[in-house]
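Example 3.2
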Amino acid sequence: MFKTFITIFLLFQATKCLEINMDFTINDQLSKLAHQIIRNYFDKNKCIIIIKEDNLLTDFPRGHNAFMQILTEDLCFDELAKSNILQAFSQNCYGYIIQISNPECFMKIWTEMLYLSIQRPNPKIFYLPVVKNETTNISHDIYSMRETEISDKILVAEYSADPSVRLMAFNYVPYAHKDPYDGFEIELFKLFCMKYNCTLEFIDDGFFWGSIYKNGTGNGINGLVYTDKSDFGVAAYFLWMEEFMYIDYSHSYLRGAVTLLVPKPIPLSGWKVPFLPFDIKMWCTYVLTIIVATIFMYLITSATMKYTRFKEAIIRKKQFIAIEDSLLRIIGMSVLQQPSIPLVPHTPIRHLFTSLEMFYFILTTCYCAKLSSYLTVPLFTKPIDTFHELAAQNFPWAAYHEAFVYALQFADDPEVKTVVNNFHKMDMEGLKEAARSGKYGLTLERCPSGHYSEHEHITLEVIDNSHIMAENLFGSPVVAVIRKASPYKEKLDKFISLALDGGLFKAWEVKAALLYLNSRKQLAIELSRSLTRKSEPKKLTLNHIQGTFIIYGSGVIISFMILICECVYGKRERLNH
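Structure, written as tokens:
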């Protein structure tokens, strides 16, 4: 016969039947449970027999049930009790509530009385534990008896004896801390088990948040919960859509965020200084004005020679009569260089030249004013403070797990795709090397109360040469991971709501931070958000004008190259003649 046996664990799994009040005695709780079972499962039994040793069920639930009590000290040797059980057969009493020290005796006696009766009952039996023997678990002994084959309606209540609840967590302070296990998410489950009488069993397979694979296996928080090797998983777990198909999430209790520790701006190289006063658009405009001025000076000079009386005077002075001559003279004019000999007076060339002089005088004055500020105040590269700047500078960043891109990897935004493509997964040794190089952004968890997660590769030296981004890389509510359709979910969600109402999470975070975080690191990270390098006026050094020497050197080299070309070209011309 197919049998369905259900074991109820008091104070833990049967809390729907029993609302625990610590002011009640164990007997009060058992009575309350018995009342609930009678109302829900014995409602079709018009007669119920209660066999007990203690003073249980002194008041009976109101309803259509009739009750028969058998009070016995030792059912195995109580002939009167046996006679009453036999008599109950004839009265169609097939519901039993048993609370005796030796419950196996009831099944043996009941089977013995069955063969003395003409009735063919199918009993419904509910076993309650004896108060004075709380640690005895009897379900295995009862279900192993041959006599229990007669019915599939046998229910056994046992004392839970602190059942274990498995929690996957790894070292991620202040969320979770190992050796000892602590942290504000661990505190949540410690208090949860204190309330619901369970024992926490901690698990860590070393794979952090882990992954779920298509072959039904997995590792880390995701994999262990998915494969039922852990009941819960915590350690700054964010809401991830892909994993939600295989696992479930509790109510969120706080909001977390991930940001980056990026290198501080460094002083600009001296060779860039001559080009800093104007941006790229201004430099393009400047070059365009030189080209336009060259063309106009050449064309107007040619027209003056052709249509006016100043042809011979212009030819004698040899100014702007060739395109290359016009270009060189306009370049000189743009830096306020005066002609070596005066222009021909009263000509259109002279009027155009004067207007160009005024234009380049204003332009050069603006350039010099801006250049002087750059030479006296230190200049640094542009900092990375926003998500847009991180993508625009194509800056690489690194972490020890791909979970740091779970929230970004399926986005369609081009900037997000750029940031995801710049992510590098590294082991701890690789991260240490990357942190020292200053060429990578390093992930940091920004906690709700303003603390930051700490990692082995983020040292005080690294923090001193870095600053934290003003914007978050991404953020999400923090949740606990549980199995899909978990029986714990409803109670955990209610417990989280109570903890939130009491403000416990913030207090737990502060406690974990005080115990396990480095206060110097926390202060250094916080100050890196606002402190910048000193920008006091300073003395000029050779480094500040190296750009000028580069321009000068480039001019000398170009001049020598042109001279050599002219010599070679002139020699060939002479040979040809």
